């Protein structure tokens, strides 16, 4: 039966019947359009619902993601740090943003305040436990003398545990208080994203005191401690993790200055191969640990992020992306004499200041160790979309289970 016969339109005669046909047709077309629009809207809503809403981010790490912890606990970060963005020192060891800043911005959250900073901090959307100089391993006497942070990863975890416990305690009292507005809701802890970016100091410090072979042998213990940290956070209710591996420490300008590579230990970019091989071994074992955790903690989402590959790609293609000498640096001076960024020293009876270059955006390295805002932004743009992740998903999808890479 055709549509005309089904609607009884074949019984309509004359001009009036034709008008009725036209009216009915218009109604049908309109209804069908509304039906399609509703279907498309439903698909859009369903698609949007697949995106993750993280109410908070809790970060653990070292200076690569420290937004003010070390500055609050020890000596305040000084000028010219922060000159490109913020307009003043912001506790970050860069001329501006860090990768963690671009990360929370991508998630639609405010910048993370340092847990150790008691002045004007708001932890409603998470907290940053990272401090510059932190290590995965508990600090010992030699590491302390090397000016590494006493706030190692195990201490950062204890700080988080206390933060969560005291927050839950306050909310359980049922007392209306202004301070509650600056703290996360108890239910936010299980829905939050937990990020880890640490390990560089463990390797860099070890390379100063140990042979390459000895450092390689110590890596298993270091990655095991990092895996244990994830398990401890899991026991505290964490379920979604974003874990960075470590970058190419053999390409840090300060590494090349203090350890000028011999021809046989230099790669095509002028980086120290032996140091990078240590970082690569750390990353290989860390990835295995993450894979093992996936099989143990079945209700977790663990994303492993290859920061090394992203940073090395930038270094290898520096000129293509608008950067100058990939092993150069913007602030301070190393070589015949050393003056750190923003510091002063006396050279041949004259005071010399570690000034900034004219345009930090031309450099990958800000101060010989830490990246410029421009370099951090490039790396962030390439890791947050999942290009260097296992599984290969955007951070906005890092709350869903996805099959990891087979390699």
UniProtKB/TrEMBL annotation:
The chain crosses the membrane at residues 20-37. The keyword Transmembrane helix applies. Keywords: Glycoprotein, Hydrolase, Membrane, Signal, Transmembrane, Transmembrane helix. InterPro entries: GDSL, SGNH_hydro_sf, SGNH_plant_lipase-like. Pfam families: Lipase_GDSL. One of its GO terms (molecular function) is hydrolase activity, acting on ester bonds. It comes from the Eukaryota. CDD domains: SGNH_plant_lipase_like (cd01837). Belongs to the 'GDSL' lipolytic enzyme family. This is Lipase. The lineage of its organism: Eukaryota, Viridiplantae, Streptophyta, Embryophyta, Tracheophyta.
């Amino acid at each position: 039966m055709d549509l005309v016969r089904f609607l009884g339109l074949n019984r309509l005669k004359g001009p009036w019947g034709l008008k009725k046909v036209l009216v009915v047709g218009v109604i049908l077309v309109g209804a069908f359009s509304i039906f399609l629009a509703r279907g498309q809207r439903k698909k859009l809503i369903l698609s949007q619902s697949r995106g993750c809403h993280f109410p908070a981010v809790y970060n653990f790490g070292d200076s690569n993601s420290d937004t003010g912890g070390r500055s609050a606990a020890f000596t305040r970060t000084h000028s010219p740090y922060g000159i490109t963005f913020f307009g003043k020192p912001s506790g970050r060891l860069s001329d501006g943003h860090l990768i963690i800043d671009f990360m929370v911005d991508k998630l639609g959250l405010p910048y993370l305040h340092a847990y150790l900073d008691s002045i004007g901090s708001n932890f409603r959307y998470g907290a940053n436990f990272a401090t510059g100089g932190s290590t995965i391993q508990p600090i010992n006497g030699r590491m302390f003398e090397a000016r590494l942070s006493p706030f190692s990863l195990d201490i950062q975890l204890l700080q988080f545990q206390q933060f969560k416990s005291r927050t839950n305690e306050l909310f359980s009292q049922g007392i209306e208080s202004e301070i509650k507005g600056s703290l996360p809701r108890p239910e936010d802890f299980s829905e939050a994203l937990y990020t880890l970016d640490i390990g560089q100091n463990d390797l860099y410090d070890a390379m100063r005191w140990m042979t390459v072979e000895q450092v390689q042998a110590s890596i298993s213990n270091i990655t095991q401690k990092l895996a244990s940290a994830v398990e401890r956070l899991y026991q505290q209710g964490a379920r979604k993790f974003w874990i960075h591996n470590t970058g190419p420490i053999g390409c840090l300008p300060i590494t090349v200055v203090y350890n000028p590579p011999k021809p046989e230990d230099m790669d095509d970019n002028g980086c120290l191969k032996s140091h990078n091989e240590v970082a690569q071994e750390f990353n290989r074992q860390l990835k295995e640990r993450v894979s093992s955790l996936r099989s143990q903690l079945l209700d977790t989402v663990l994303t492993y992020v290859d920061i090394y590959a992203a940073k090395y790609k930038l270094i290898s293609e520096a000129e293509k992306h608008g950067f100058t000498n990939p092993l150069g640096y913007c602030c301070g001076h190393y070589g015949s004499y050393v003056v750190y960024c923003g510091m002063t020293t006396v050279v041949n009876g004259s005071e010399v200041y570690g000034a900034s270059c004219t345009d930090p955006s031309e450099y990958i390295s800000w101060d010989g160790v830490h990246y410029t805002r421009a370099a951090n932004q490039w790396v962030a743009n390439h890791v947050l979309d999942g290009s260097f992740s296992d599984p290969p998903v955007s951070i906005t999808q890092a709350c869903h289970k996805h099959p990891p890479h087979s390699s």
